[in-house]
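Hi Prof. W.,

I finally got the Phosphoenolpyruvate carboxylase prediction working! I wasn't sure whether to trim anything, so I left the full sequence exactly as given:
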Amino acid sequence: MSHDLHESLRDNVRILGDSLGRTIADDLGQSFVDKIETIRAHAKRGRQGDSLQQRELIEYLRQLPERDLLPVTRAFNQFLNLANIAEQHYRARFRRVEDYKPGTQPVLGELLSRAQQAGNSPRKLVETLASMRVELVLTAHPTEVIRRTLIQKYDAIDECLTAIESSEDYPERGTRAQGRLEELISQAWHTDEIRHERPTPVDEAKWGFAVIENSLWQAVPDFHRDLDNLLLDTAGERLPLDAAPIRYASWMGGDRDGNPNVTARVTREVLLLGRWMAADLYLRDIEQLKTELSMWKANSALKAEVGEGTEPYRELLKRLLNKMEATRDWAKAELDGRNYDGGPIIETRDQLYSPLLACYRSLCDVGLDTIANGALLDTLRRVAVFGVTLTKLDLRQEASRHAQVMEELTSVLGLGHYQEWSEAQRQEFLLGELESRRPLIPRRWECSAESREVLDTFKVIAQEHAEALGTYIISMAAEPSDVLTVALLMKEVGGQVTLPIAPLFETLNDLDHAGDVIDQLLTLPGYRALAKDRQEVMIGYSDSSKDAGQLAAAWAQYRAQESLVDVCNKHGVDLTLFHGRGGTVGRGGGPAHAAILSQPPGSVNGSLRVTEQGEMIRFKFGQPDIALRSMEIYACAVLEATLLPPPAPEPHWREEMDQLAKVAHAAYVGVVREDPDFVPYFRSVTPEGALGRLPLGSRPTKRRQDGGVETLRAIPWIFAWTQIRLMLPAWLGSGEAFSRRLEQPGGREVLQEMRSQWPFFGTYLDMLEMLLAKADVAIAAYYEHRLVDEPSLKALGKKLRTRFECLENVVLDILQQEKLLENTPLIRQAIDVRNPYIDPLHGLQAELLQRNRDADGAISADLSRALMVTMAGIAAGLRNTG
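And this is what came out:
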């Protein structure tokens, strides 16, 4: 990376920081800005190893008057958000910024050349891209801490940076942009950064739709246009018009697993909102096309469709416009609970696609290809990707909720107690009912409210076109009967719509048995007929890591995928794997390209589904240029994994991983499950107790309000450890596994061999290295010093930090490096730049947590808000926190 590119990033950080300083000085006076600068200077020198400065920083923070605590936390939080804007801007501007490590940046043109050199014909490349099905599933897990109103201001700030950079020959433009920048930063400073109420699931869905409207609506046709141009150069043809290698689905408003706020009524409302917004966006497109397509030359098919006229395209588009306006009116009436009494509406993708295709073919037939391949092609591409619903809405529910319905039903019908039956009895009953023509559920059945809600969800499915809905996911699935139950409820209540059903295997035990469960399922003739030779399976990253530790979970996920590939190949069934990844390494996060190429060979065969969660949606898709790059990365990775799959692991590597995972799992469980001091330590040293008050998402932080760590959702579990910089869930156990192997003959050599030759292991180590660099045991020790009194808890904390330091040394030994991230300077620089701004937030957070505990949770509103701002600021500074 050239020197001036890094200078560009530094310049923008300085421009934004200076502007923020002026804004704060205008509001609170220069003396307050001087306090901020004093804090930053202490933190910066403390980071350079000056222990006196570290102590002075803490002492200075503790001496701050109470009235200063909130504005100080806000100042550092705001700077970290501005630093993120500068870095995002930099990544969008310079395509080859190393997101991961030098030499691994995927570029589609280069990949197409490599694929041809490996013997793939141009036709094969086009066919593979045309049949590719990558679905990015937008989810609203509670990690996005920034309010939507601020996100809009941050996007506008990004535009100002672009204007300033391009104003060299027009200094007056730069002056105007700088003025607008000052205004926006002032607006952001004077806006409350913390929501006062939790978003509802409908609010989350609106946020997801806004990402499509503000970014993806432009990025999707741009992506296809770039892809077309590449294919014209390399293969001499365009991507087929209806091809959509990358599509979007959503869980927002459909994910009811552990979220009582997602009801059938909410799901219906979100589906209608999607229809309304799609109609509104297409209206703008069609209006533009009606203005532009003023040509009179047309083929006979179009003339026959619209009759004789001087402007046939406009005539057809005018009719389409009327239907689209009616569609928007219908959706609005449904949302308002009114009867719709207007004209015919557009209900399916084809009703929108066909008239546009008629215009396209006509223009091509009469020699106007240049016009056909302009704005009209962009709209056709949007229809191929977004349909008339913007996204496909997935539905997710826990297996136990479906079993509860069956228990109540078999009891009321006098058939026995479903939950007491063996798995074989359940399968026999469910398969019989799937083949039966009589209804199973009594018409006036008065079941429990919980079961009624499950049945109402299936009624929503029955009322929808199948193309509005994605997959029905069953969390905590463990047996074939879990899938058969959903199939039966869909048949009984879901009408003609039959959605793909994906069991989600999450725990270590469930992952180990995933292949057996799918094998049993596909052996059942009754299910095989329903599945239509396709099977989707979801792999859970979050709960498996919480359950088993990161290393053991990663290996279990890999083995589960191998097993599923083998089983589906044996049965002649197309498998789509759905990866439930989060933003953090502890939840399967990390660069998408590396993650996909580290999957088992054959597991990415042209199809892939993956969740994009929380704040990662904004980082990857929040702006058109970034979204365009993210889609290219996904297309590259899936194309490469399909045409140039990684080699299968050597048998002795598998044996190594078996042993490493076994040792790591035992070490992890020995602490998290078996040490009686662990849960009290976790509750004492992290802000987990206060986290529930931060209005991040619509889901509760716990599945149940009683119980220990096992009841916590994976997201707050990891979020809490990230806040104190110990990052424990992502590394605990790995140190013991690697240390033991290094002590044995040939250990270092085999680990280095696996690192260089096996993408799965190499990626695991790279993610571990990045995570260790973001962690900071000195900060974790300060939280403990301030918040933990019990000697036994302090002893545990010391042991954990010792384990961390041991792991860091071991990883550096394997990587043959002097320090972490020495081969990824941009990531190292990003962490170093942020640390002096995050450190004061850690100091303030520990202080505020102690005050909150001393006051038994009754601190003032300003201090409570300051505590929440520290959480938001630390999350912003560390970025991938959820």
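The radius of gyration is 28 Å. Does that look reasonable to you?

Thanks,
D.
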